[in-house]
Amino acid sequence: MSLLGAPVLDVAIGPVLNEKASTLKLMWERLQLLPSHQALFLLKNCLGAPKIIYMLRCCNAWKYPALLYQLDEAMRCCFQNLSNVRTNHNDYPPWRQATLPVSRGGIGIRRSEELSLPAFLASIHSVSGLLSALLPNHAAADVTGASESWKLKARQPVLPEAAFRKSQKAWDLPLCNVSLAALLEVFQGDEVNTARLLAQSRPEAGIWLNALPSAHIGNLLGDDELKISIGLRLGATICEPHDCVKCHKPVGGYGHHGLSCAFSAGRHPRHGALNSIVCRAFVSAGVPAKLEPRGTSHINERRPDGCTTFAWKRGLCLAWDVTCVDTVALSHVKATSTTAGAAAMQAELRKSGLYSYLVGRYLFVPIAFETLGP
Predict the structure, then answer these.
(1) I want to staple 88 with a disulfide (CB 3.0 to 4.6 A). Which of 45, 84, 92, 114 is the partner?
(2) Do 155 and 72 belong together in one domain?
């Protein structure tokens, strides 16, 4: 027996979940008919966890991890086909990272096995007052068991504060933090993967995953572009090891070499694209700006990437210079494996020193990006 799609008794959880799984598998098969980026966006925001979150909130599905595992395994295969990135199994580090929220360095393809407990606890605390009024003698065994299980998994001796127990996020984030810490422990001693994971955990590093993939506004990635972007984010193998045809240095399976190679054909277009975005943002805000202005220096030929045409503040025009550094380059990886965004901060300091001659004549702002997000 089910009510509004949710099983009423525990004995109905299996049949209802199996029916939901068969429907989802059919949709996931049809997703592969779409361009990969659009299909991944739909899987993340519509046809994955959002399709089952209602059922997870309305029943004790967390007691049946084997049933949820089957559903998660089917979703893993769908993600693997869409992204063309190998995920192997549920404990494989790239897949474990992919199932984290975007704010914690993941892709946002949440596993039902991990969501079931936070969803149920948030739901049961949201209706606890009404439940007590309807059923004064109702035994709270399910709530007690779920709470103890959450404490064990979240490694916390106490439950969230009473004011936040209605929020699913309050139950979910501690579990996500434990998963992220476990991944960092797996990569202990591996500076490259530690730096990558710390960089992807920065809030700005995952904004592109939440952007609408539309060709009309330039946000739609091709299949190869999506594979490389996902592979770099998850630390998955995206190519066979080989020697770079430009500098003849070894290229590892992670494909990081192309981000910092001195002969990479993508470095100048990358810089130009970032600079153009900054300039267009000024123009869109009604602030006239121009790229690479002449006459800013009488000392050398160096000039900033752009400046506003009219005064920005205190009668001075604003000048900026954009740079993009590689998070896992040999010259940066020691710092970035300790502090997320360290390479970008160092690059901004260098830019401020290079353009110190502008002080007093312009308001200079360095803008530094890292290849992996910060």
Answers:
(1) 92
(2) yes
